[in-house]
Amino acid sequence: MTTTPAARTGTTSGRSLAVELTDLTRHYGSVRALDGLTLHLEPGEMVALLGPSGCGKTTALRILAGLDQPTSGTVSVGGHDLTRVPANKRDMGMVFQAYSLFPHMTVLDNVAFGLKLRRKDRTSRLERAREVLDLVGLSEHADRYARQLSGGQQQRVALARALAIEPSVLLRAEPLSAIGAEVRTPLGDESRRVQLEVGTTTLFVTHDQEEALAIADRVGVMNKGRLEQLAAPAELYAKPATTFVAEFVGLNNKVRAQVDDGRAKVLGTSVPVMAGSVESGAGVAMVRPESIVLDTTGTANARVTSVNFLGPVSRVYLEVDGGETVMAAVPSPLAVKLSPGERVAVSVEPTPLLVVAARAT
């Protein structure tokens, strides 16, 4: 569950500021890395930019950081135009994908390094470094070196170093991409806790949809330099605005549909259509696996082809009469009762669906 920025205390920095990226473009020769990006971040908000490689999300982050310059457009923080302000004058903290910790320094000195550059006295900078190490749960590792830490611990040190300078904006590039799957979820939860406690306005970029949906207040999906949709995670998942968003965020079944008067008939079920759907006639409905309903007692219209056990939820693959193939995500206690070749009734939940023209898929 997300927390609105207004509900946060910002207990550590108290310096959260709004961020405005306005009509940003960035051209590299004939390539348009950004093509009119406009994005607003509320003070204390965490926004994720999500998209495939080459979509422009990292370019946007670099321009906000001052590491790159836009071809056109403006960058402002707290109402001040920073478009041509050097990176070292922008008061931003950045966590790089590779962490970039200094191997010859202890954890404590790594965290205090930014304060040293700002000419803080040793006593005050070490005191601040210990404060943020306690915040990220690494106080007991203050005297260790980076090589003595796990990847997850190094990620937290990098976060602590960025927060130590009390930045007005925190920038994170693929924050969990180098972390093993077994610790990615708890570390994401930890990152979220820290950001909520500190209250720093945060922009991070990732290609990992689960990471973005789990920890961001809002998620922006980018494609070819443009922002296709910006919304809260639940809305983005349940109400994708475009075919690209629907396909990029979450798995989808593409099922034949017939639209008439604002409703579509899909697998024998009449459902409302979302805004942006075809207005009438034949189309293709984008159906989430969890919206596929199986019934072993109804009139069968599909055959189970395989069952993949994934823990609490399993994937059931089915061939529907007429030749279409769909995948349903169902509770494993139900899935284990199904066998390949078994006939079942398949329908969809009567919730709104995006129905696109067949050529758009």
Describe the structure.
This protein has 361 residues and is α+β, with helices and mostly antiparallel strands. It folds into 2 domains: 5-243, Rossmann fold, CATH 3.40.50; 251-360, OB fold (Dihydrolipoamide Acetyltransferase, E2P), CATH 2.40.50.100. It is 25% helix and 33% strand. The chain has 9 helices and 20 strands. The chain has a 6-stranded mixed sheet, with helices on both faces. A hairpin with a 2-residue loop joins strand 11 and strand 12 (263-266). Helix 3 (122-135) crosses helix 4. The two termini are 32 Å apart. The model is unreliable at 1-14 and 177-183 (pLDDT under 50).
How many E strands? 20
Biggest sheet: strands side by side, in what order? 6-7-8-3-9-10
Percent helix range: 10-25%
SSE pattern, N- to C-terminal? EEEHEEEHHHEHEHEEHHEEEEEEEEHEE
CATH superfamily of the largest domain: P-loop containing nucleotide triphosphate hydrolases
CATH architectural arrangement of the largest domain: 3-Layer(aba) Sandwich
Spatial shape: globular
Uncertain segments are 1-14, 177-183
Main sheet overview:
6 strands, mixed
- CATH fold descriptor of the largest domain: Rossmann fold
Question: What does the radius of gyration come to?
Answer: 24 Å
What is the CA–CA distance across the termini?
Answer: 32 Å
Mean pLDDT: 88
What percent strand?
Answer: 25-35%
The gist of it:
The chain has nine helices and 20 strands. With 361 residues, the chain is of the alpha+beta class.
